[in-house]
Design a protein that fits this description.
Oligomer: homodimer
Radius of gyration of chain A: 21 Å
Largest sheet of chain A: 6 strands, antiparallel
Strand order of the largest sheet of chain A: 5-4-3-8-7-6
Number of domains of chain A: 2
Largest interface: A-B, 67 and 67 residues
Helix content of chain A: 40-55%
Number of strands of chain A: 8
Structural class of chain A: alpha+beta
CATH class of the largest domain in chain A: Alpha Beta
CATH architecture of the largest domain in chain A: 2-Layer Sandwich
CATH topology of the largest domain in chain A: Beta-Lactamase
Order of helices and strands of chain A: HHHHEEHHEEEHHHEEEH
CATH superfamily of the largest domain in chain A: GAF domain
């Protein structure tokens, strides 16, 4: 065990345990938790018991642990998670009802877009996101908006990294990405065509707080074939404006939320 | 400080800090966190720093802490929170689009119903819930369903407690509540009229897992005046069946979720 590991407090190790739960690994036995954290089984046992007693983890009949309802209740207070989606939901519903396409809402965390809400379209293309999922910023509509309006240092750091390719249409050249970001700022929206999958186009617009800072992005994801994505820009921008107004307190979370 | 308090581990105290964040208290200074937990300021400072480093708390420009995005990401793996609502969302949307009334989804935690999803109706009555909120079981439609299909010991314990009154229509007599619960089981749905507010009726139906156990409840909340709530029962039952099927893996989270 390294010195750094040995110095980690009980609180750090408790959070390490929460951190091993991921979308691909959402149900784990005690032995698996110990293995993924590198903790001795007895330590893992004690900390898991602490988490279960509080309600951060729940143990199934099969002895498998998953994330518990109480943690979810506390997490629902995160202003950038459920708080944001509560304010946004009426506008996302309107966008969905107007289009019946995939609707998404995302925030930036470091160099990723994190999806905080998604409404499935019916006839719509496959969308490879889930609530809580992360995607790199350069290839999705919401990501391009969040990157284009992010700090200049972020944009420099982002363009200096290798840009992952998802399809033959993904922009992976830093110079081209800089031009795309300038275009996003010029048009106050992003159109990302076939960059994640070859069958989908996403149209995204910013959500601004009362000071004008971009705090989130909203998008529609539609089939690339037979759609003119530019016809959707006004609706997506409109939704972004409405959500920003709701966050600022000018509009409530809904007509009944007084 | 009591012996019990003194014996609490660093992990327990870390969770105590998360526990002080509530819907009415979602942004707190370090001093407030220390006050609510009863921890010395230096201890609170160290634990809050641990939580902030991991991303469970985020510190605003104003020095105020709120729940962080990373906690929300991990919590989104809770099968009874976001996991359930992901499976349920297409059916809740259909129910909303068919009725434009308030749609709610709840699970039971102890003696409370916890709301995991809600879609606002437009012309609809005020609904005093939010995602993550709790209500006692005896007065709401979802609560009556969750209580009626809960363990017999739960029903006994619940009826032995004082039943809180919210309006003059709230059932507060244990004998009458038992009759109501029997009726819920007979009809496989609950109609709760004017029991929380005098202007609203809720119609709720169970969501069953593959073994037939009731794991959640779905409801519509509509204005009490001029509505025949019984006309909504079939739609709500239908939504409950669909969500149960989706949870069992027979149906996906949506047509695109393959």
């Amino acid at each position: 065990m390294s010195d750094a590991r040995a110095r980690r407090s009980s609180g750090d190790r408790l959070l390490d345990i929460l951190g091993v739960f991921t979308p691909g690994r959402s149900a784990l036995t005690l032995t698996e938790i110990a293995g993924h954290t590198g903790l001795p089984l007895t330590t893992a046992h004690r900390l898991v018991a602490t988490l279960a007693r509080w309600g951060a983890l729940e143990r199934g009949d099969d002895g498998v642990y998953h994330v518990g309802l109480r943690l979810w209740e506390v997490a629902s207070l995160a202003p950038r998670g459920v708080g944001l989606r509560e304010a946004a939901m009426p506008f996302l519903e309107d966008l969905y009802e107007a289009t019946h396409e995939n609707v998404q809402l995302a925030v930036r965390d470091g160099m990723d877009a994190v999806y905080v809400e998604r409404i499935f379209g019916r006839s719509a293309v496959g969308v490879h996101t889930r609530v809580g999922a992360r995607w790199p910023l350069h290839a999705t509509g919401v990501g391009l908006v969040l990157l284009a309006y992010g700090p200049a240092e972020l944009q420099e750091a982002y363009c200096a990294r290798p840009l992952e390719r998802f399809t033959r249409f993904t922009v992976t050249d830093p110079g081209e990405l800089r031009r795309v970001l300038a275009q996003v700022r010029l048009e106050n929206c992003a159109v990302s065509s076939r960059q994640i999958t070859e069958d989908a186009v996403s149209v995204a617009a910013p959500v601004r707080d009362t000071k004008g800072a971009v705090t989130a992005a909203v998008s529609l994801v539609v089939p690339a074939a037979g759609t003119d994505p530019r016809r959707l820009i006004a609706a997506v921008r409109f939704a972004g404006l409405g959500i920003g107004r709701a966050l600022g307190g000018d509009a409530g979370g809904g007509p009944d939320d007084a």
